[in-house]
Amino acid sequence: MFTRLILGIALSLALPVAGFAAERFITVQSTTSTQNSGLLDAILPQFLDETGIEVRVVAVGTGQAIRNAMNGDGDVLLVHSKPSEEAFVADGFGVQRFDVMYNDFVIVGPAEDPAGIAGSSDVVAALGKIAEAEAPFASRGDDSGTHKAELRLWDAAGIDVSAASGTWYRETGSGMGATLNTGTGMGAYVMTDRATWIAFGNKGAHDVVVEGDQRMFNQYGVILVNPERHENVKAEDGQAFVDWLIGAQGQAAIAAYQVDGQQLFFPNAPGS
Amino acid sequence: MRDLLEEKPVAKTSLAAHGLRFEIDGQTKVDIPLLRLDGEGPTMILGPNGAGKSLTLRLLHGLLTPHAGQISTPATRQAMVFQKPVLLRRSVLANMDYALRAAGVSRAKRRKLALDFLHEAGLAGKAKQAARTLSGGEQQRLALIRALATDPEILFLDEPTSSLDPSATQAIEAMVLRAASHGTRIVMVTHDLGQAKRLGRDIVFLHHGRVACHQPTDTFFATPDSAVAAGYLRGDLPI
Amino acid sequence: MQDFASSFTHAMGLILQGDAELWAIVALSLQVSLTAVIIAACIAMPLGAALAVTRFRGRNVVVVLLNALMGLPPVVVGLMVYLMLSNAGPLGVLQLLYTPTAMIVAQVILVTPIIAAITRQTIEGLDAEYAEQLRSLGVSASAKIPTLLFDARYALMTAFLAGFGRAIAEVGAVIIVGGNINHVTRTMTTTIALETSKGNLALALALGTILILLAIAVNAAVSTVGLRARSIAYA
C-alpha cells in the first residue's frame, strides 16, 4: 500500500511538469513598478493576441534586472535608469536602447507631515527640510532605478544620507511595495513612482506630499539583449516585442491603462 | 519440513573455542582457554548474572569479534533466538519469508515452506497478522520457527523463555527438543535450573567469564565440579 | 487583529469561488514541492540510512555537517542554483532558469539534508534493535539498508513531512530561480510575497491561510495512512 501510494504520487506529479515546456515565449527582465502597477498584466495579453508570443516577466529591481540580463537570463530589458541602461548598451550587453514611456516620482508622507513639506513642488528643498527635521525617511536602498533617482536628488540637496543611515534615514533593501509597507508602518516619507503608489493597496494615512518637480521625471527604456553576447537570446521574438512596445499599438495600450481613472504611464517612444 | 519431519542421524556438529577472550572498556569479560562442545547436546549454559553467558553465546555465534582466540566449527549454517524476540515490522508470513530469502531459498519454494513451518509452530492461522501484535509466547515461537526455517546446523538460544509464562515456556521447550531430536545442535543460555535439567545433556557453568565446570547434566546436578556451581545450586548468593 | 479574522473569511471566500487562477497556483505549489520532496527522499533516505549503519573515521563530523545543513538558507540555495542555471553559468545550456524544474532543483537541495538527517536518526534507532538479528540471519551490511528503510517506513513519514513543510513554505529560493512569472512559476509563497509588495495585505494573508490549510491537508492525508497502518500495528 505504502509503495503504491508513493508511486502513484510520483507518476501524477511527473506528467504535468513535463507539460510546462511552452511553445513560444520570451523572457523580459523588468522592474517591480511595471508589474506591481498592473501595467504589464494589462498590455501583455494584447501582444500575445497579436503575435502569439507569450511574455514571461521577471520583476525585480532595475539593478538586479540589468545584472540578470548581463548573464543572458532574459531576452528583453524593460527598466528605468537611463544612465545604467546606456552603460548596458555601451558595454555590448544590449543592442539598442529606446525610450518607451515615463511617469514621475512622488514623495508620499504621513498626514502629520513632520517636515512640513506638504504641497511643495520643489523636491530638493523638501528633502532638505526632511533632513533638517530628521523626519523618518524610508529608502529602497536596493540599487534599483528608484533608489538611484532618489540618491541623485539627495545629492542635489547636498545631503549625505549615508551619515544618517540607521537613524532617520532607513534603507529597507527591498522592493517598492515592501518599502511602502515599511513607510506607512513607521510613518516615514517615501519616494515612489506614481504608478506603484496609485495601485498600492496599503496606503494607510499616507498621501502624496511632493509632486510636479521636473527633476522627478521617471523615464523607462527598452533594450533587446545582445544575441551576439548570448546565443540563447530569442532575438527575433524579442525584437518583435520591442517594436510592438515602441510602435503605435503598444504606445496606445500604455496610454489606455488606468487605475482609479488615472493614467499611470505616458508613452513617449521616438516617432510615436 | 526438512529439519523437523525428516529423521536425520543425530548431530555430530562440534563447536570449539580456543583462547577466547573478550573485553569491554579494557576489562576482561570472557576468558575461555578451551571449550569443546562435541557431544550431541543440547548444551545448557548456566551461571549467575554477569557471568558472561550472553557474551559467550554471541562470541560462539560470531556476532561479537573476540579480542583473542577463535571459534572453530564445521557448521556453516547457524541461527540464534534472542531473549527478546526481534520481529520485523511486517506480517508473520513476511517475517518467515525474509529469513528464508536471507538463507538463499528460492522465491518459488518460500511460501509453501514458510506456511509449513508456521503450521509446525501453531501459527498458520496468524500468517497475515502483523508480527508485533502477537502475544509474547507467540512472538518467541515465531522467532524460534523463523530461526529453524533457515535449517541451522547449530541453534543458539539466549534465555528465550525468561519472560514467558509456563505454558508458553512449555511450547518453546517442546519445539527445541523436537529440533534437537531431528539433528539440530542446541546451545542455550538459561537461568532456569529446571529448564536446564529438562533440556540439557551437558551443562557449561560460567563464573566471572570463565568456565567453572562442564559436565553431563546428571553429574552436574549431583556433584558439581566447582564450588561456585555447588553454591549456586544451593541458592547461595555468588559473591 | 481584525485582519486575521477577516483574512480567514476572505480565504474561505477565495476557496469557495473556485477561482481558476488560484487553483492553478495551488496546483503548481503542490506539484513543485511534492516532486521535490519525493526526489529528495529517494536520495536522502538511502543516504541517511547508509550513514546510520556505517562506522568510519570522521563520521561524527559528517553527522554534524548534515544536521547543520538542515538550516540551509533558502536565499543562498536560490542564488547558487541561479548561478548554476543562468545562461552565463555552467548549466545554462539546459535552459532551466525560470521554469518549475529550476524550483524543484532548488527545493531538492533544501530538503535533502532535512530528510537525510531525520532518516539517519530514525534508522540508527531501529538498527540498534535489528542489528544482531539481521547479522544472525546472515544479512549483509548493504542488504540491511533496504530492510531498515522498509521497516521504518511509517516513522520515516515524519521525515517526509518535515521536508514537505520546508519546501511548500519557502519563498527565498523559488522566487530567485523561478522568477515569480505569472502562469509559469508563480507559487503560493511567491504570490503572497507579490501581493504583500502590492500592499494587498488582506489578500496576502488570505492566501497564507490557504497555504496553511494546504499544509494541514497534506499532513492529515499522510498521517491517516500512517495511523491506519499503526492501528493494524506494524509499528
Overview of this structure, please?
Chain A is an alpha/beta fold. Helices cover 43% and strands 24% of the residues of chain A. In chain A, strand 10 and strand 11 form a beta hairpin. In chain B, strands 5-6-7-3-8-9 form a 6-stranded mixed beta sheet, with helices on both faces. A 3-stranded antiparallel beta sheet of chain B has the order 2-1-4. Chain C is mostly helical and 235 residues long. Chain C has a domain at 34-187: MetI-like (MetI-like fold), CATH 1.10.3720. The model of chain C has no long low-confidence stretch (mean pLDDT 90). The A-C interface holds A 1-2, 5-6, 9-10, 13-14, 16-17, 20, 22, 27, 32, 35-36, 41, 56-59, 68, 70-73, 174-178, 180-181, 199-203, 230, 232 and C 27, 31, 34-35, 38, 86-89, 92, 95, 97-101, 104, 153-154, 179-182, 184, 194, 196-201, 203, 225, 229.
Strand order of the largest sheet of chain B: 5-6-7-3-8-9
Q: Count the E strands of chain A.
A: 12
By CATH, the architecture of the largest domain in chain A is named: 3-Layer(aba) Sandwich
The rounded Rg of chain B comes to 18 Å
Q: Helix share of residues of chain B?
A: 25-40%
β-strand amount of chain B? 15-25%
Contiguous runs where pLDDT drops below 50 for at least 5 residues of chain B: 1-11
Give helix % range of chain A: 40-55%
Number of helices of chain A: 12
Average pLDDT metric of chain A? 90
Instruction: Label the structural class of chain B.
Output: alpha/beta
Number of strands of chain B: 9
Total number of helical segments of chain B? 9
Beta fraction of chain A:
15-25%
Most extensive interface: pair and counts? A-C, 40 and 34 residues
Largest sheet of chain B: 6 strands, mixed
Average pLDDT reading of chain B: 91
Describe the secondary-structure layout.
The complex is a heterotrimer of chains A (272), B (239) and C (235).
Chain A: H1 2-18, E1 25-31, H2 32-36, H3 39-51, E2 54-60, H4 62-70, E3 76-79, H5 82-90, E4 94-109, H6 123-133, E5 137-139, H7 145-156, H8 161-164, E6 169-171, H9 176-186, E7 189-193, H10 194-199, E8 207-210, E9 217-225, H11 235-246, H12 248-256, E10 258-259, E11 262-263, E12 266-267
Parallel strand pairs in A: 1-2, 1-3, 5-6, 5-7
Antiparallel strand pairs in A: 3-9, 4-7, 4-8, 4-9, 4-12, 10-11
Chain B: H1 2-5, E1 15-24, E2 27-37, E3 43-46, H2 53-61, E4 68-72, E5 78-81, H3 92-102, H4 107-120, H5 136-149, E6 154-158, H6 166-181, E7 185-189, H7 193-199, E8 202-207, E9 210-216, H8 217-222, H9 227-234
Parallel strand pairs in B: 3-7, 3-8, 5-6, 6-7
Antiparallel strand pairs in B: 1-2, 1-4, 8-9
Helix pairs in contact in B: 3-4, 3-5, 4-5, 5-6
Chain C: H1 2-17, H2 20-53, H3 59-69, H4 74-85, H5 100-136, H6 141-151, H7 157-169, H8 172-178, H9 188-197, H10 201-231
